[in-house]
């Protein structure tokens, strides 16, 4: 509709959005004939697949009529570009109601064997190389804080969670698995349900709120561990830094816990809405405007807030082991429809 809709407008999409349909061959970057036959979808009704950065056409109406449309990117891929994760091995995490991680695998499409999605990261121009990524999603991140507020009345406002969690030095050995709708990547267990482990008579709401923040971090580590294994690495701790954005990224305690529990530096720049920055970078590329040098490394850490690990590796390992114990205990609570798993995943 931007370029005119049924009155001569363009019917196009880009490789990142098309890769989400289950209809595109992510190697050829074209609609897959076999998949179209399987789903009984005629090819002629589908949009043309283009790169993520080129001059597609002009706006047809409104005060910006005549302005060229020069970028199309999926939301998470746009955030990856906005974080300037252009080098293989760089990763970003977006913290919102859920949590969304992308890991740049470069020109190599890594076929995940550990419960992740192999996808197109971006293609910044018709003749530019295709860059691939591994993606994993957490169903419940910020939504757990909302649940503590709305359902348990532990908070008056979600913004209170950092203060309350900071009133205690640890979770008091409390672990919270917020599997309200099952577990997403990399476990894919529909039968999992939320569970609080390790409660004692001394447990306070501060411990529970802090455990909810740690749950976000542990679930993030689960995905990073799967990404590392898919890429032939021994541990997610080989990741030098994790670049973060999203509404929850304003929580300093969350990001410090993330660094502690993953063993990697966490970097937050001054702009947390990176998807908008990413699509602006792609739009500039199409017009020959280099807002950033895509061949260069991301900005130095001095240009953002850096959270570095502050706990001993032994402590990190022990806490992650306890998390996996709690995760295992969350399984089997709901009656599985046919199989307890979505993709046959297991807890590692």
TrEMBL record:
Record's keyword annotation contains Nucleotide-binding: yes
Q: Where is the Carbohydrate kinase FGGY N-terminal domain?
A: 9-82
GO biological processes = glycerol metabolic process; glycerol-3-phosphate biosynthetic process; triglyceride metabolic process
Q: What InterPro entries does UniProt report for this protein, alphabetically?
A: ATPase_NBD, Carb_kinase_FGGY_CS, FGGY_C, FGGY_N
Looking at the record, the residues that make up the Carbohydrate kinase FGGY C-terminal domain are: 98-284
Q: Which UniProt keywords apply?
A: ATP-binding, Glycerol metabolism, Kinase, Nucleotide-binding, Transferase
| GO CC list | mitochondrion
Q: Name one Pfam family in it.
A: FGGY_C
Q: Which GO terms describe its molecular function?
A: ATP binding; glycerol kinase activity
Q: Does the keyword ATP-binding apply?
A: yes
Question: Pathway, per Swiss-Prot/TrEMBL?
Answer: Polyol metabolism; glycerol degradation via glycerol kinase pathway; sn-glycerol 3-phosphate from glycerol: step 1/1
Q: Under which EC number(s) is this enzyme classified?
A: 2.7.1.30
Family, as annotated = Belongs to the FGGY kinase family.
List the protein's name: glycerol kinase
- Specify the species: Frankliniella fusca
